[in-house]
From TrEMBL:
One Gene Ontology MF term: O-phospho-L-serine:2-oxoglutarate aminotransferase activity
GO biological process: L-serine biosynthetic process; pyridoxine biosynthetic process
Catalysed transformations (reactions): 4-(phosphooxy)-L-threonine + 2-oxoglutarate = (R)-3-hydroxy-2-oxo-4-phosphooxybutanoate + L-glutamate; O-phospho-L-serine + 2-oxoglutarate = 3-phosphooxypyruvate + L-glutamate
The name this protein goes by in its record: Phosphoserine aminotransferase
């Protein structure tokens, strides 16, 4: 039986994608073997990579002068690899939570860093137009604190965005973004791949770093500088087709808004549950909430799991609970969660 998976990541994948991969596991394309067991240089594998890249371009309306790359090392590697590829002397970071902090630490290893924003992460700080640095970095959706930057504004420098926990849940305005990256394991597929979409004019094939981490080289070689994580990209290709079948990014956005709005409404209506984030900055993907009495946290988790509502325990740095509402979450999950929350409150308050 499939449970409702509220994990912050790695997160649930669409059932039809898992079933399709299961059906092909022993015999892919009549080869009598799985896609995992053959060369990444096989034309059929290259076709999977090309299909994934084409669908990413279509779904996100990526301009032609941007590269679409499957990189390795997760989104965490990008905290260093982006400065190593872009060779900035100075970087400005909008700090809206724990992942912004990691981006700051990564950038500090390579450049002078200035910052707007600090804890507690319950709102998006006002950001004046940025100039005089080599780029601005921000995290579109803070997975731990549940803070979403609705509008980054316009700046006189390139804008780099960590969209790990929100990619494919809403459109990206490419007039305001020069590089967007996202670890795959929330809205895109399994872990092991980080999607990087970058304006080609920013990239430098001569940057002083290992060729497997050089974005210009990855772009030139179809993300196959070395043996890539083929099975992960194969699953991503299927997830992208699933997004298209469901109506594309606009349908994902409508679902995200519908689900998060109903969950925040249930939290706000109650004195038993609370979320500290300013309404305009609330995440559509990750909804952290506290119980008025933290002594009940363990009981809440135990009872919710008994109902098939899985992985609601909050991040250790924030406490309480967190419901992650990624694209693949079935529609019935949030009503079931709200019903459980109301029942728990009625019996425990
Ligand atoms: C917003 C954000 N950035 C970066 C990361 C780090 O991703 P990875 O574990 O792929 O390095 C995460 C992981 O949850 C995240 O949510």
């Amino acid at each position: 039986m499939r449970t409702f998976n509220f994990s912050a990541g790695p997160a649930g994948l669409p059932l039809s994608v898992l079933e399709s991969a299961q059906a092909e596991l022993l015999d892919w394309q009549g080869l009598g073997t799985s896609v995992m067991e053959i060369s990444h240089r096989d034309p059929r594998v290259i076709a999977v990579f090309e299909s994934a890249q084409r669908q990413i371009r279509e779904l996100l309306a990526v301009p032609d002068d941007y590269a679409v790359i499957f990189a390795q090392g997760g989104a965490s590697a990008m905290f260093d690899l982006i400065p190593q590829n872009l060779s900035p002397a100075s970087v400005h970071v909008l700090n809206t939570g724990a992942w912004s902090e990691k981006a700051i630490k990564g950038a500090q290893r390579h450049a002078a860093v200035t910052v707007t924003g600090a804890a507690p992460y319950v709102d998006v700080p006002a950001l004046s137009p940025v100039s005089g640095v080599d780029y601005l970095h921000y995290c579109h959706n803070e997975t731990i604190h549940g803070v979403r930057v609705a509008d980054i504004g316009t700046h006189q420098v390139p804008v780099v965005c960590d969209a790990s926990s929100s990619i494919f849940s809403e459109a990206i305005d490419w007039s305001r973004h020069d590089l967007v990256y996202a670890g795959a394991q929330k809205n895109l597929g399994p872990s092991g791949v980080c999607l990087v979409i970058a304006k080609r004019s920013l990239l430098n094939a001569d940057a002083a770093l290992a060729p497997v981490f050089n974005f210009a080289k990855l772009d030139a070689e179809g993300s196959m500088v070395n043996t890539p994580p083929v099975f992960a990209v194969y699953l991503i290709e299927k997830v992208l087709a699933w997004i298209t079948q469901r109506g594309g990014v606009s349908a994902m956005k409508a679902a995200a808004q519908r689900r998060s709005t109903s969950l925040y409404a249930a939290i706000d209506q109650s004195d038993f549950y609370s979320n500290p984030v300013a309404p305009a900055a609330r995440s559509w993907m990750n909804v952290p909430f506290l119980l008025a009495n933290p002594d009940l946290d363990a009981e809440f988790v135990r009872q919710s799991e008994a109902q098939g509502l899985m992985f609601l325990k909050g991040h250790r740095s924030v406490g309480g609970m967190r419901a992650s509402l990624y694209n693949a979450l079935p529609d019935a999950a949030v009503p079931a969660l709200i019903q459980f929350m109301q029942h728990f409150e009625a019996t425990r308050a």
